[in-house]
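ok so i was messing around last nite and threw this chain in just to see what happens. nothing serious, just curious
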Amino acid sequence: MKKALMFGTGSSATHLINNLPNDRVYLAAVDNDTARHGKVFFDMPIIPPEQIGDYDFDEIVIGSYWEGTIKKQLIEDFNIPESKIFTPNKKYFKNDVENQHPFRDPATLGLARNLVKTICGNACKENVPLHIDYGTLLGIVRENDLIEWDDDVDLAADVIHAQSVQDFLLRTVSKIDDRVDWHIRRDIDQNGRIIFFSLTFQAKEGYHFKPFATSIAMKGVEDGKAVKLKSFGAWFTPAHHLHELDSLLWEDTRILVPNDYDGYLKFTYGDWHTPKQDVSIGTGANWQCVPIEVIKNSTFTSEVIYGSDQTDA
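result:
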């Protein structure tokens, strides 16, 4: 059994504890959040990074989406050899439900396809600059469909259009599919900007769909990069992909895509023509290290703005 430290105490670390092969014994959990120090995570003491040297360990498992930042911190600030730092495969960061591959279920795939066509088709018609992104873009461009092993729908827009996107979602979400009840959640950062929307659903009686989330990420332009604001700038693409959107016809629906989507996909995935199911967090050209101080000083609040008991922001 490997002796390990888990860096992280959030949902990502929880999924790793549950999903990684059982060949480790965890000695402690490490976290940069001082409010968590001295507490317990899965029967492990939560310690600050400064106490890593108190333990005899074989590896540090990074249980966080801020892989690049944490890895740099460990190497540069605490002299941890890179050979002792382990970043798990992306699939292990997901919970059991998400790992069920919802789009392999025909009914759920149909619902997801209706969602993309309704949201993105109407956005294109109404000149709302909301485009498909990441795995959703990749699947529609490469396979003319959603990727069967994907587990969510990815959309995005420039943060300057966040209010227009919110207004659009509020008047459009009920048109997607009346077999489910929809909910919209939004995240607002410490500067008052809307940085993220999430659409979820609950099947009505008599229907069954596997759950999947739809994310609408707001992006901001910083130093020539279009950065995903909820990631504090960790994920980015060259800004020109966001300035002027293109469109493509997906079956009978015209939808918006990043400008020069071929270049966008090359930057994000490298050889995007070759399917890859096993990807680790923090790999690829679209990742940059975010200073730990930025993460520590950034906050956001989350609230439901549409649902069965609330329909207005």
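not much to say yet. The longest strand covers residues 180-189.
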